[in-house]
């Protein structure tokens, strides 16, 4: 698979060369990105990279970026950050000082973004990132960091609201809900946990279990045994793809009966494909779903994006296109939009244009707060129902009713 | 701290959980013991401290997973992974290990470490960093109100591990090669004088170790999961066990393996699973320290 | 030209080059600084590994601990550490120039002292171990420390710590960090060059050659071992502290206690250059760093395979390193007189 993608990149690179020669009229805008091609985030890193590349190609096919009557195309320089923060920071430094990159795309994961953001900030290089959701990125006063995605405390907080609603429906008080939390020990999941804990406190809920998952997780039966004993009403799991895989598998094996289970990264872990019926009725948070009614002139509707992406990258044919890919494409799209509004290649003008972004995309509305996070787009919560991901919350987007309690 | 206390109180409130933790520990411990036995073998016979032990385990898991992807019955993956990894071990022996036997003790640690880095990265390039597992689709047995669950897949895995261990014991005791291996372990020079081709014995021992690891990996992929960078976790456990049990002490290795599996599960229950790796390493340090104190009494050092 | 003169010119040239390098290659400032870091950790590893015969795999413990101690001191001097490190990020913390440089100075110094003290404690517990057990034991200490720190929420836990950015001009900041590392590196070099010439150096060499005999001759071996390791730890701790400020953001397992990266790289550097020699670690660090930067640029995805292969090949086929090779090939350079016969025959 990996070989194939390397090959496809090579092919893409050669076609790029040729098309460059034929379309001599178009200039080139170079973006830089340190992305995880090896190490623990390499799957997610590849998902993001494919999203970036797909968007670059789509924008090229649609006539490129028009700045002052001249047309440009994007070109991305990638380096492999090996899923290690210090490596990422060094590479960002290299992209900026040796490759003279003036505009950056983000890496995968909050941790990596945290490592790189101080560097881009220091050199005043605008960075649009699509994969770093932790709030700790957006209260440092960074001026050159823009994130198209919703921050991580929102990922599973809506599950708390859902659990409260369900309790009230059954005539119980929301404060009677018992919550169990198991999250990975990394910036993203810790912030997911913080969001959940804050919301649970608002309802005065009781957090009966609050544990961290190790990085090299392969067994969480110790936690699930405690879940069996403490009988919570809501179980929260967040640990990138391996958290989702291990969680779903052992929940099935141990026949865990919790009325509501919510986790992150179901799609990129492909839990429906791997575990079939076991995954049913699990709630999954997502930044984006192909069933939502967002739309833009380049990618078309969300459903259209899903379809065309699967055509361009057949490896995703039998899977969900992960939202990580969609938001990566959206980040490139934000750059295009900002360049055209800035009508300049100057990075300061571009930064101001980015800050003023107010864009509707296939990925959803994008508008940045002062701090750089996207405040226009809501998170959605999907439930796996008969192997399908159906949106169940928030109610404005819900296409299906919530199955509760989980069997 | 509160969390630790409430976790301990759970153990007292629901005594059955102790049984469950011990059972879980024994199951994973049996696989640690398998990998550790291979390590004890190469350490004892040829004085090679194989830091790539865990990566041989993980590679075996990928062999089995790859075959299952291509329609092979998953249970057959165990013997096939054994055979394939035997071959890989033989190649590794001829290219690298052969040249580090009886060299500076530190050399084999570093050389196999380099090997470990290469193997992990090659696996990552071939199979990506996704976690992989095989779902056998067997049922789970439940006892004590569903609190104790024994997936049949796990049970089969443990039985296979036990079977393999038994086969190796019988082989070492009764076959010609087994005797030659034990003779070489006792005194390589004397063995050579007696006409044993030690070069052949070494190659065989290392391949056997690699095969055992491969089979362990094939069991792990059925019961837990594998990922290219998980090798180090199994290497650490193997070192803990061998250090605790000493070389050339097979029942000791098995007992230590099971014991460490159980201790680790207890630690994970009380302190939380994010301490699992730390617990394994601290056990290693404690074992070293304990043996050091033992030796100091005899005015000796641990070599 | 006399030998002394030649040596003086050589040293002057190297020193001059070290001063000019960051200005001549401003784009490579960070890589050049990292090169000095590699030289520092390789030289200090060789103090115990090469000169004393104790192969530690746990020197990275001092690097990581140094990083944390320096950062916590620098932050703690100005703010409440618990507020600074909460998971949701805490907010904006401003540091004035005085707070930044003062915090860094005291932090880095404190890191060195703390590591040097912890080397005595760990050494007291582990120096009874020999050979592979010492290597495994020290590796265990480093791994355990990384795992424990990543569960220590007060110190940032798994999300690590973000330090303030260098105040002032960036290009000057880069050169500032370069000279911090270069200064420390040159200091370490002068120190070990002096040390190996003293009675102390002879004593630790005696420990390497035969510890029992050295003990019997009246060398207080444990004391010498502790002193040596604690000196090495002092420098590594300081280097770790500086690295923290240079990286700005770091986390426990992969940047601070990076056992399978820098922790092993330093050993490979020494083996590549030649164990137990003065120049070996320096040459090894330069070669290794070059190799790493080249493969990381041109072998994307395969760089770790290449690195693993380099380690295997170095260890298995080339264990005496560059210096060992040179010593064998051109013994006169090292003041060793041999019959010229063998080389003549070869020619």
Overview of this protein structure:
The complex is a heterotrimer of chains A (about 400), B (about 300) and C (about 350). With about 400 residues, chain A is of the alpha/beta class. Chain A contains 13 helices and 17 strands. In chain A, helix 5 packs parallel to helix 6. The longest helix of chain A has 21 residues. The relative contact order of chain A is 0.13. A two-stranded antiparallel ribbon of chain B has the order 1-2. Chain B is built from twelve helices and two strands, in the order H-H-H-H-H-E-E-H-H-H-H-H-H-H. Chain C is built from 16 helices and two strands. Chain C starts with a helix and ends with a helix. Chains in contact: A-B, A-C, B-C. At the A-C interface, strand 3, helix 3, helix 4 and helix 6 of A face helix 2, strand 2 and helix 11 of C.
**What is the radius of gyration of chain B?**
20 Å
Straight-line distance between termini of chain B: 39 Å
| Strand-pairing-aware structural class of chain C | mainly alpha
Into which percentage range does the β-strand content of chain B fall?
A: under 5%
Shape of chain C: globular
Keywords:
heterotrimer, A: 407 residues, alpha/beta, Rossmann fold, 7-stranded mixed beta sheet, 6-stranded mixed beta sheet, 13 helices, 17 strands, globular, C: 347 residues, mainly alpha, 2 domains, two-stranded antiparallel sheet, 16 helices, 2 strands, 72% helix, disordered C terminus
Give a quick summary of the entry:
By secondary structure, chain B is mostly helical. Chain B has 12 helices and 2 strands, in the order αααααββααααααα. Chain B has one domain: Orthogonal Bundle (ABC transporter involved in vitamin B12 uptake, BtuC), CATH 1.10.3470.
């Amino acid at each position: 698979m990996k070989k194939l993608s390397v090959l496809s990149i090579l092919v893409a690179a050669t076609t790029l060369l040729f098309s460059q020669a034929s379309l001599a009229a178009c200039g080139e805008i170079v973006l830089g990105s340190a992305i995880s091609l090896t190490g623990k985030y390499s799957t997610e890193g590849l998902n993001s990279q494919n999203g970036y590349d797909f968007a670059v190609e789509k924008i090229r096919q649609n006539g490129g970026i028009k700045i002052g009557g001249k047309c440009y195309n994007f070109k991305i320089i990638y380096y492999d950050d090996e899923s290690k923060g210090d490596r990422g920071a060094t590479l960002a430094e290299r992209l900026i000082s040796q490759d003279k990159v003036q505009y950056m795309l983000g890496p995968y994961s909050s941790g990596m973004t945290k490592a790189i953001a101080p560097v881009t900030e220091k050199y005043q290089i605008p960075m649009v990132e699509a994969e770093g959701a932790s709030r700790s990125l957006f209260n440092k006063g960074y001026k050159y960091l823009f994130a198209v995605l919703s921050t991580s405390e929102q990922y599973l907080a809506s599950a708390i609201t859902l659990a409260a609603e369900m309790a009230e429906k059954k005539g119980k008080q929301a404060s009677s809900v018992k919550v169990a939390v198991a999250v990975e020990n990394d910036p993203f999941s810790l912030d997911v946990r913080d969001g959940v804990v804050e919301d649970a406190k608002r309802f005065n809920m009781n957090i009966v279990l609050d544990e961290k998952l190790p990085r090299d997780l392969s067994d969480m039966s110790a936690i699930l045994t405690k879940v069996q004993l403490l009988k919570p009403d809501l179980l929260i799991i967040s640990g990138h793809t391996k958290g989702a895989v291990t969680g779903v598998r052992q929940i099935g094996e141990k026949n865990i009966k919790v009325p509501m289970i919510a986790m992150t990264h179901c799609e990129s872990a492909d839990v429906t494909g791997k575990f079939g019926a076991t995954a049913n009725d699990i709630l999954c948070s997502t930044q984006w779903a192909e069933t939502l009614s967002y739309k833009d002139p380049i990618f078309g509707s969300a459903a259209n994006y899903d379809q065309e992406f699967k055509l361009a990258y057949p490896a995703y044919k039998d899977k969900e296109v992960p939202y990580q890919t969609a938001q990566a494409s959206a980040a490139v799209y934000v750059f295009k939009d900002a360049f055209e509004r800035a009508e300049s290649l100057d990075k300061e003008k571009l930064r101001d244009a980015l800050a003023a972004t107010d864009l509707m995309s296939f990925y959803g509305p994008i508008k940045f707060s002062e701090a750089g996070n996207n405040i226009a787009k809501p998170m959605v919560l999907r439930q796996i129902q008969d192997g399908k991901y159906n949106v169940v919350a928030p109610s404005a987007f819900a296409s299906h009713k919530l199955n509760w309690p989980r069997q | 701290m509160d969390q630790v206390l409430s976790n301990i109180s759970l153990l007292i409130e629901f005594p059955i959980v102790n049984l469950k933790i011990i059972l879980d520990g024994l199951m994973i411990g049996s696989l640690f013991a398998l990998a550790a036995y291979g390590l004890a073998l190469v350490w004892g016979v040829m004085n090679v401290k194989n830091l790539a032990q865990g990566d041989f385990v993980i590679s075996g898991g990928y062999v089995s997973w790859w075959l299952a992807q291509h329609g092979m019955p998953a249970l057959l993956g165990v013997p096939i992974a054994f055979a394939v990894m035997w071959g890989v071990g033989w190649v590794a022996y001829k290219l690298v290990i052969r040249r580090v036997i009886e060299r500076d003790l530190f050399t084999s640690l570093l050389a196999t470490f380099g090997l470990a880095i290469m193997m992990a990265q090659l696996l990552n390039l071939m199979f990506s960093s996704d976690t992989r597992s095989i779902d056998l689709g067997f049922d789970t047995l439940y006892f004590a109100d569903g609190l104790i669950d024994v997936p049949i897949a796990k049970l089969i895995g443990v039985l296979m591990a036990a079977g393999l261990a038994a086969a190796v014991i019988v082989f070492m005791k009764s076959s010609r090669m087994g005797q030659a291996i034990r003779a070489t372990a006792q005194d390589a020079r004397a063995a050579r004088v007696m006409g044993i081709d030690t070069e052949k014995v070494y190659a065989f021992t290392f391949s056997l170790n690699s095969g055992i690891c491969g089979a362990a990996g094939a069991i792990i992929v059925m019961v837990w999961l594998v990922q290219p960078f998980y090798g180090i976790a199994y290497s650490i456990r193997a070192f803990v066990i061998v250090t605790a049990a000493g070389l050339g002490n097979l029942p000791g290795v098995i007992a230590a393996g099971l014991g460490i599996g159980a201790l680790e599960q207890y630690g994970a229950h009380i302190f939380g699973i994010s301490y699992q790796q730390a617990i394994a390493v601290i056990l290693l340090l404690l074992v070293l320290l304990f043996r050091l104190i033992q030796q100091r009494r005899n005015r000796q050092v641990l070599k | 030209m006399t030998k002394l003169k030649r040596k003086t010119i050589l040293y002057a040239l190297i020193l001059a080059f070290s001063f000019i390098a960051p200005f001549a290659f401003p784009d490579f400032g960070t890589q050049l600084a990292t090169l000095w870091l590699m030289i520092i950790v390789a030289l200090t590893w060789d103090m115990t590994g090469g000169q004393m015969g104790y192969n530690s795999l746990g020197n990275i413990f001092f690097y990581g601990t140094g990083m944390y101690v320096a950062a916590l001191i620098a932050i703690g001097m100005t703010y409440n550490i618990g507020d600074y490190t909460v998971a949701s990020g805490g907010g904006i913390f401003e540091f004035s120039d005085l707070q930044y440089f003062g915090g860094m100075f005291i932090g880095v110094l404190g890191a060195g002292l703390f590591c040097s003290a912890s080397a005595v404690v760990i050494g007291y517990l582990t120096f009874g171990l020999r050979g592979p057990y010492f290597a495994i034991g020290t590796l265990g200490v480093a791994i355990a420390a990384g795992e424990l720190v990543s569960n220590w929420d007060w110190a940032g836990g798994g999300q690590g710590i973000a330090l303030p950015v260098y105040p002032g001009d960036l290009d000057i900041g880069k050169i500032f960090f370069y000279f911090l590392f270069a200064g420390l590196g040159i200091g370490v070099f002068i120190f070990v060059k002096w040390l190996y010439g003293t009675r102390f150096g002879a004593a630790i060499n005696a420990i390497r050659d035969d510890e029992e005999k050295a003990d019997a001759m009246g060398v207080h071996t444990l004391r010498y071992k502790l002193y040596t390791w604690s000196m090495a730890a002092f420098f590594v701790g300081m280097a770790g502290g500086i690295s923290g400020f240079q990286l700005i953001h770091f986390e426990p397992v992969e940047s601070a206690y990076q056992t399978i990266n820098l922790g092993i790289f330093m050993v490979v550097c020494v083996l590549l250059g030649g164990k137990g020699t003065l120049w070996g670690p320096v040459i090894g660090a330069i070669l290794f760093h070059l190799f790493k930067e080249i493969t990381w640029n041109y072998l994307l995805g395969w760089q770790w395979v290449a690195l693993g292969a380099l380690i295997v090949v170095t260890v298995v086929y080339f264990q005496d390193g560059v210096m060992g090779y040179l010593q064998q090939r051109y013994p006169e350079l090292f003041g060793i007189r041999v019959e010229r016969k063998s080389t003549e025959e070869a020619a």
